[in-house]
Design goal:
heterotetramer; A: alpha/beta; Rossmann fold; seven-stranded mixed β-sheet; 10 helices; 7 strands; globular; B: alpha/beta; five-stranded mixed β-sheet; 14 helices
Chain lengths: ~250, ~350, ~350, ~250
């Protein structure tokens, strides 16, 4: 660094210098960076094991410079359970989309959370299947148009969007559960704090830590990156309110 | 706790053998007729501080827990029975493609469908040809006694590590439920975390002092990468075919008629051979112990012998291994079939009658 | 809306053909390269008031929705691709054992594992030998053009009803994605509830005026009942083998060398035959259209011909159908293999080169 | 009937005169009878379709004289979804145990309830796997001894028992959700009313109706039938409180 300058921002060493395949404006790259910043700051790069899902983030291991396992669609929480029960002293996290975590993987997600598996789940909710090209997800909003809800999601026929953070927070095994967003710098900073909290509570073996990250999908929402921010603000966050849904450490502090 | 003689149920002996082999993790879901495995392990677990046993929420989940735990460097097993084995097929295809060593036991029951809880050999195709998608193989052992269940299970963990490949112990409800005298092998001392890391430098157990992180994946999105992966797998399979074939012959040297049978049905076939010999009939048995790699060479040799008249394949299904026998015999001799299903095991007399009808 | 010429993608044509065949229900889960099927159906659904389409939460769930809907008397379909097909194996075994008619399409991609989204023929064994547990069969069609996808899908619903058996349309990502001109058959008018009941007196659609209730089950806990069920299934399969074999031969009558190939690879093989004929080489093609029942008789006839020198089996896998070819040829002629994997389709020149090397 | 007598109780015609395979003292036979009484009283015997699970009640179709389909383990809600979407005017119900509904079938259960599938789920919670011989279920109580929790269920290792009625009642697709019990005549009468309510609300197409029936297992609990009543009262009902968890018709009446 040049003399006289103060370092205010750097690419974490834990993030590989590879060009990401994500669409322009997609929040995945931000979340990748935040997780890797926390991993670097906590000094757990050589211990942590990540689990990537089937979905847009299937290639997460191409960017995060830590040990990684790619799981079958929906089974990231089962894979992570196997890893963590084998290596109880290692931090473990899954990185999953909404189709993966809430549709095909719902049983694995709910049971891992119910058992209080000591890993962190980073759940990217962008209300749509990204990689397969824009199908309806369990979290697709009412009336939202996708390729499998071409006339808008009709709750009378396919049910209301699932609020995963609220659902898993009901399970006694969950130690920490929050919903965050990456739609503005303040929220990005908050999200980073929450990621750190997940890893810290995981290290204390208090239970499952679950972070729902409200995200976007410029390509499949058919919106410019900028306009996705409006959709997130005006639609997503209205139905998926941000905030801590559960925190056993807060309770203990009371 | 060392070498020991015991009188045990097949399923419990399987569990005990796995513990003695240094298994570090077991993930499974209850299904008759193999639930004694997880029950035994839950009871014994406190004696093994480095061992973890978990009842999964389903077989889909248990095979994926195995995938994670084995990729993390554990010595890992799951067990199930036929319908549960069907549910595991996607996971097994992933594990095989990602070169992950682990042990699976399928204690077969009668199918298709919900079927019956009685023993069966209806999952030969599923086990040997690949029940899941894509071109992959499992090393498949077909023990025919509780002792063999113990021996092959005990050795399976190291064999899986040797070949970076899942090992399948294919037995059935009768072998799982019956009690026999067994010699239990010496327990392998539990490995330290350090030893586990050294043993499996490819495992996703945290980067540690490695200069490069490890990645476990079965994704090869580019066609050429995927073809390369398939070619590597096939090369490995050719080497396994060269080194790992196991079989038994019984009164086969001078036989004019050869029975082919595996697992439970091979026991009755031995009896059929004994009765035949008493009657002066030159009948013998070839028993594949590994269903894959298949004992091609020995069957090929018998098929070439001028004094061999025909083969009689006996299974507890409608005819599955017979295809592999025929592929080796390749028209040189007739290959006949006799099978019963639904849990019914042909008697020695019944088998002999079938053979005599073809003589 | 009647017979119509259109230019369509394979997956959309499949969906349209199913709608024209009077499909009443579709249950499926997105997976590349076949997601266009459910997308097309969701878009078209409002035009068909008696048709229901539902995106299931998983392939495990969708195949069991199919089981329920088809048992209730609907004309039902699901579609998927290789990993999803693995997840369906338990359900398919149940459906086959319970004699429930339905249509399944597997638009194959490269495996094993997560593999690639490129086309493949890696699921032949899984489709033909039974990927699930127990002895059962599906009638398996391997179309090689969008037109054949349409024709076999359109007929599959009635064929399923005729045999009380699931029908599998086994295609691949290339056939699913490519656009071709197709003649779409006339739509079958939607049946009334009354007609549906009359057509399927066995369905669990409420006792109504029947004197006895209907039960759909695949459970046969007693050994003799389970064996009886298996024997009934096998008898049905023998009748299907007698009546439902479909194949195509191409320039095969005087051929000295016969290529065997199905689906996508058969198209390139036709081109290879054409080039060979220009060069004066007597090469022909036998293309199984039904992979089960397998066209045993025609291959057997060619294997007996003195002028036939050898067979060359070409697949997009490491060698699966070749086993069925060999089982028929039974040593009378050599059977060679050439295959590519990972989505790579051998060129006609490549195939010809392989054949010439054996001449 | 003899002259001068008033009919106060009869075996419903909908229940076949077959000897049941259930263990002495097991509540399954009571629940079978109650459902069939309601079916008879509502006159829906010729319309209704039942779905039996894998578990002790796999043979339910041997006793209930209505059309029946046997589902794969855990998939009753998927099978029922297929039936009901094919025959929307027919009453459809599933009859499932705790292993079936809450372990292997959790995703199918939750998603059917979330979509608001218009069928009734009768969920028999006896806190143990019956047919396979007494293994731990998702609903096994803390400290309870089973063959796979031989030292008592340890929530730190395998999580707390799952409260299915509370969980599904959170889903907007559920129209009615109650937990009942069959441990005394008063509760049996209440349960019957709730079964009727399930079918009535189903007929109104208001959403999924879910009835959790707290039950017993003399054989695998290793208790005499009488003593199971104590265990139900003192242990099961303490953790699984009875009552209506959700009733959209009640809300509407307000």
């Amino acid at each position: 660094m040049k003399e006289g300058y103060t370092l205010v921002y750097k690419r974490p060493d834990t993030l590989l210098k590879t060009r990401m395949h994500y669409c322009p404006g997609c929040f995945h790259s931000i979340l990748h960076k935040l997780i890797m910043e926390v991993v670097e700051e906590m000094g757990i790069q050589n211990d942590v094991i990540g689990v990537s899902p089937v979905g847009c983030s299937v290639f997460a291991y191409d960017y995060m410079d830590v040990d990684f396992q790619e799981a079958a669609h929906g089974r990231a929480c089962a894979v992570a359970t196997g890893i963590k029960r084998t290596l109880p002293n290692h931090p473990v996290f899954t990185y999953q989309g909404d189709g993966d975590l809430a549709a095909i993987g719902l049983a694995e997600t709910m049971h891992a959370c119910n058992r209080g598996e000591k890993f962190s789940i980073f759940f990217v909710n962008n209300a749509i299947y990204g990689m397969t090209g824009g199908q309806m997800a369990p979290t697709t909003l009412e009336g939202q148009i996708t390729t499998t809800s071409p006339y808008g999601r009709d709750p009378k026929n396919v049910g209301y969007p699932m609020k995963m953070a609220e659902m898993v927070s009901q399970l006694p095994g969950v130690a920490y559960c929050e919903r965050v967003c990456l739609n503005n710098p303040a929220n990005v900073r908050k999200a980073k704090k929450s990621i750190r909290k997940c890893f810290e509570i995981q290290a204390q073996n208090l239970g499952t830590t679950f972070l729902e990250v409200v995200s976007n999908c410029p390509t499949n929402w058919r919106l410019s990156p900028i306009k996705t921010l409006d959709f997130v603000e005006n639609n997503m966050l209205k139905y998926y309110p941000l905030g801590v849904k559960k925190d056993v450490t807060a309770t203990e502090e009371k | 706790m060392d070498k020991k003689i015991a009188f045990m149920k097949g399923n419990e002996a399987l569990a005990e053998a796995a513990l003695r082999a240094g298994m570090t993790g077991y993930f499974g879901y209850p299904i008759t007729p193999q639930t004694e495995v997880i029950e035994y392990l839950c009871k014994e677990a406190p004696k093994y501080p480095k061992f973890t046993v978990l009842q999964a929420e389903s077989e889909v989940s248990s095979i994926n827990m195995v995938y994670g735990a084995a990729a993390a460097g554990g010595r890992i097993m799951t067990t199930t029975s036929s319908p549960g084995f069907s549910l595991m097929q996607e996971g097994i295809s992933y594990i095989a493609c990602a070169d992950i060593p682990c042990v699976i036991a399928n204690v077969q029951r009668g199918g298709p469908g919900l079927g019956t809880i009685q023993p069966s050999q209806g999952d030969y195709f599923q086990s040997v040809k690949g029940g899941g998608h894509g071109d992959y193989k499992l090393i498949v052992f077909a023990p025919n006694s509780v002792q063999e269940v113990v021996d092959y299970t005990y050795n399976a963990f190291d064999l899986a590590n040797k070949w970076m490949c899942p090992i399948l112990i294919l037995s059935d409800g009768a072998i799982g439920q019956m009690m026999e005298k067994v010699i239990l092998p010496e327990p392998i001392p539990a490995r330290t975390a350090e030893e586990m890391r050294d043993e499996k430098p490819w495992a996703t157990n945290g980067k540690g002092k490695r200069t490069k992180r490890n990645i476990i994946t079965s994704l090869n999105i580019q066609s050429d990468a995927m073809e390369r992966r398939n070619n590597e797998l096939q090369e490995k399979y050719r080497r396994i075919e060269g080194e790992e074939v196991r079989y038994e012959t019984y009164k086969a040297d001078d036989a004019e008629i050869l029975i082919t049978a595996y697992g439970l049905s091979s026991r009755v076939c031995k009896k059929a051979v004994d009765i035949a010999r008493e009657q002066g009939l030159k009948i013998g048995l070839v028993r594949p112990i590994t269903l894959w790699p298949f004992p091609t060479k020995v069957i090929d040799e018998f098929a070439s012998k001028p004094n061999v008249k025909f083969f009689m394949d006996v299974e507890m299904n409608v005819g599955q291994m017979i295809e592999d026998v025929k592929l080796v015999v390749n028209g040189r001799k007739p290959v006949y079939f006799y099978g019963r299903t639904g849990g019914i095991l042909a008697t020695a007399e019944e088998i002999l009658e079938q053979i005599k009808a073809k003589m």
